Amino acid sequence: MTQVCTIAWVHGMVQGVGFRYCTQHEAQRLGLTGYARNLDDGSVEVVACGEAENVDRLVAWLKAGGPRSARVDRVLTEPHQPGREWTNFGIRY
C-alpha cells in the first residue's frame, strides 16, 4: 500500500461545532495519523497521513460535510511532505 500525506483546508461553519473532534474520530477509524487544528481565518487545517485509499476516504468525508453540525463550503487539498512523522491523529490548539 502506498503511504501518502495530504493537507486540507476546510472552509465554512467548521469551528465551534465539534469538527476537529469528529475529524479525529474518523481519521482514527481509518487508521490515519496527523492532526486537525483551527486557523485564525475560521477554517480548519487537516493533515492526514496513511494509506492513500484511506486518506482519500477522509478527504471525501470532509468534502461531504463532516459532522452534521458543520457546514462545509469548500475543501482545498494538496500533497504534503511533513517535517515529522505522527504516531496518532491529534487535535492541535
Q: Topology of this structure?
A:
Blueprint: E1 3-13, H1 19-29, E2 33-38, E3 44-51, H2 52-63, E4 71-79, E5 89-92
Parallel strand pairs: 2-5
Antiparallel strand pairs: 1-3, 1-4, 2-3
Number of strands: 5
**Whole-number count of domains:** 1
**What do the pLDDT scores average to?**
95
The top-level CATH class is Alpha Beta
How do the SSEs run, as a string of H and E?
EHEEHEE
CATH topology grouping: Alpha-Beta Plaits
Portion in helices: 10-25%
Radius of gyration, in Å, reads: 12 Å
> What is the CATH architecture annotation?
2-Layer Sandwich
EC number: 3.6.1.7
Keywords: Hydrolase
GO molecular function, one term: acylphosphatase activity
Active site: 20, 38
Structural notes for this entry:
The chain is of the alpha+beta class and 93 residues long. The chain has one domain (3-85): Alpha-Beta Plaits (2-Layer Sandwich), CATH 3.30.70. It is built from two helices and five strands. A hairpin with a 5-residue loop joins strand 2 and strand 3. The longest helix is centred in the middle third of the chain and has 12 residues, at 52-63.
